[in-house]
Every structure is written in structure tokens, then in C-alpha cells.
Specification:
Length: 353
């Protein structure tokens, strides 16, 4: 549905852009004020997937295998590069992505089957590579926790990427894996400004709660890192040193960053979001992004899509390197071990070790 841009309470997207695969789409009634419509409610739908480990062959992504217990994400981050994946389901990258969440109820069992196969070679599995594994519904369903339980059972190395303090709930399992050098957690912190976070990623944990998660997990012996991701020019780029310093003070041992990516419908949706929330600096933001993306709002090339190219990209890289050095943390990722992997026997599975 192509709506007029309007802010929705608790939602990041300000419209529902057309699906690029569909020739037809709905147009909003021009006689209806979109501000008078109720905020869309979240729906949870069953995902009957038969395979849970996804394979990634992109050379600029730090892992080959990932597990995504959910499709779509209620966190509502307006800039999320994963939004276009909902178009493969016949839905929109906009409000649909954050209000129609597909739940893979069989994820833990499918993961156990995958790790038990003879052809499985133990190596790092990321949870999650696309949508956040600790979005609000996880508190009730515990699919991510049950997947980590499987990882702990097999002692297969795992990397968690999230924006949610809820990850601390699973510090017991993660600490068990970390004792074998087989777990690490990265908290994504885009800004330290709670007000900005509220309109940019409305249902994710506040920045302060993410820093608290780093502190809690670090105290439990789980290696933590911070991802300043994505960096949004003219909105969040100036915060990088403060974010890295705050994360290091909380216990982060490593850091990374990416520049905002605007593939497919994300570009016009992001422009509409700027119209609503930052009309005074919209053109500055877009022009800076174009300067990073070879004159476009998006550059899908593997060589540049994560960090951009040009003078500003070099400045951001230098800022990141300097900030890490001053904070005393590594600009890379921790090394994880698969040396303790083992396929539990039926007796071990029955009695818990």
C-alpha cells in the first residue's frame, strides 16, 4: 500500500512502499488523513521452513552460516537493509516488515538435525544474519534461547548480533560456550541519543540498555563487541568516538562499523522518513550518502557496500581507527574455536551432558 508519509507510534517506517515484484499496488484514499488512522498492529505468522542454517557467500560478511528464527523484525529500524526480504513473501519493505513477523517454530529442532548430519563441519554460526533474534516476541517464544541451547549441547561456536538487552537472559548458556572459546556477542549501537533512537529504531532497547547488556555479558565471561552500525552521515556519524568509548568502558573488547545501505525500496522509504523527522537536513544527508555511493543512494558492490568509497569514507575509517585506539579496543572480531565440538549421543542428550 502506497501511503502518504506519516509517523506511526512505535514504528520506524512512515509508509508501506510498493513491492518491486508486483505490478499492482494499493493507493491510500486521498480523502483520509493518515494521521487519523490507527497505528498498525503486529501480526505473527507461522513459517514452515524446512532448513534453518542459511549459507552466505558474500566476501564482506564475517560469517558463512547463520540462523534466523524470525523473518521480519518488530524493532522497526528505519534503515534496515533486510527490509526488502519481505518482498519475496509478497509484502512491503515498509510497515509490513515490522508488523508481519514470520516465526520459525521448528528452528531449534531443525538446527539440531543440521548439526547432527555427517556433512556438517563445525564452524561459526551467526544468530542472526538478517533480522534481530531478540526482538520483543522472543521474550515469550524463546526460539533463540532454544537454538543457543542446541549450540551449547554441540559446543558449536556462535556469534550473536542484536540491539536488545534481552540477550542477557541467555548469559548462562553463552557463558558456557564462552568457557570453550565458542561464543561472542555484538551489540549494535547506532546512537547514544535516546530520543533519536526512539524514532530511528523504536522498539529496540535504548542505547543505555545496550551498554548495560555489554557490561552484564562481559561480567559473565562472554566476549562482547560493539557495532556502530549503520553510520548515518549528518545524523549519527559524529557519535562514533563516544559510542566506542562508552562500549569499551562497559566491557567491549572489539568494534566494527558499517555505513548505511539503502537497497531497493529502502531508499525512497528513508527519504520519506527524513521528510517527516529531519526535513531541515534531508538534502545534506542524501548528498553525503551519494558521495559515499558513487553518486547513488545505494552501491551494491561487495568492494564498497559496507563502508563506501571516497574522501568521506576515508574520514569515517580514520575516525573509527582513532576511536578504537583511544578506547584501547581491537578494531577486529574475536577468534572463536570449534575444537570442542561434538555430536552428543542419545544418552548424553537424555541426561544433559
Amino acid at each position: 500500500m502506497a501511503d502518504a508519509p506519516t509517523a506511526h507510534r512505535g514504528r520506524g517506517a512512515v509508509l508501506n512502499p510498493p513491492n518491486r515484484f508486483d505490478t499492482l499496488h494499493y493507493e491510500a484514499d486521498p480523502e483520509i488523513d493518515p494521521n487519523e488512522l490507527p497505528s498498525p498492529q503486529t501480526q505473527f505468522l507461522r513459517d514452515e521452513t524446512r532448513e534453518i542454517i542459511a549459507t552466505n557467500d558474500s566476501p564482506d560478511v564475517g560469517f558463512t552460516y547463520s540462523v534466523n528464527p524470525y523473518r521480519g523484525c518488530e524493532h522497526g529500524c528505519v534503515y534496515c537493509f533486510a527490509r526488502p526480504t519481505h518482498e519475496y513473501l509478497g509484502l512491503s519493505s515498509g510497515l509490513d516488515f515490522e508488523t508481519k513477523i514470520f516465526v520459525k517454530e521448528g528452528a531449534p529442532e531443525l538446527l539440531r538435525q543440521a548439526l547432527s548430519r555427517k556433512r556438517w563441519v563445525p564452524q561459526i554460526v551467526a544468530i542472526s544474519g538478517v533480522t534481530d533474534p531478540y526482538q520483543p516476541i522472543e521474550r515469550r517464544l524463546e526460539l533463540t534461547r532454544r537454538c543457543i541451547e542446541v549450540m551449547a549441547e554441540f559446543k558449536n561456536p556462535v556469534v550473536i548480533i542484536t540491539k536488545n538487552h534481552l540477550v542477557t537472559r541467555d548469559s548462562d548458556l553463552l557463558a558456557t560456550l564462552a568457557a570453550h572459546g565458542s561464543a561472542a556477542v555484538f551489540l549494535s549501537v547506532t546512537t547514544l541519543d535516546g530520543g533519536l533512537a526512539n524514532i530511528m529504531e523504536p522498539r529496540a532497547s535504548t542505547p543505555q540498555r545496550r551498554l548495560e547488556a555489554i557490561a552484564t555479558l562481559s561480567a559473565a565471561g562472554v566476549p562482547c563487541g560493539v557495532l556502530v552500525a549503520p553510520v548515518i552521515p549528518a545524523i549519527t556519524d559524529h557519535e562514533m568516538p563516544a559510542i566506542i568509548a562508552a562500549a569499551a568502558a562497559a566491557g567491549a573488547r572489539s568494534a566494527g562499523y558499517t555505513i548505511v545501505r539503502l537497497p531497493y525500496a529502502i531508499a525512497p522509504m528513508f527519504e520519506a522518513w527524513l521528510d517527516v523527522h529531519f526535513p531541515d537536513r534531508k538534502e545534506k544527508v542524501l548528498n553525503r550518502i551519494r558521495s559515499l555511493r558513487n553518486g547513488e543512494l545505494n552501491d551494491p558492490r561487495w568492494s564498497s557496500r559496507m563502508r563506501g568509497e571516497g574522501i568521506f569514507a576515508d574520514q569515517v575509517k580514520s575516525l573509527f581507527t582513532t576511536a578504537c585506539r583511544k578506547a584501547g579496543i581491537d578494531g577486529g572480531h574475536p577468534e572463536l574455536s570449534a575444537d570442542h565440538f561434538r555430536k552428543p549421543t542419545a544418552q548424553f542428550s537424555l541426561f544433559g551432558n
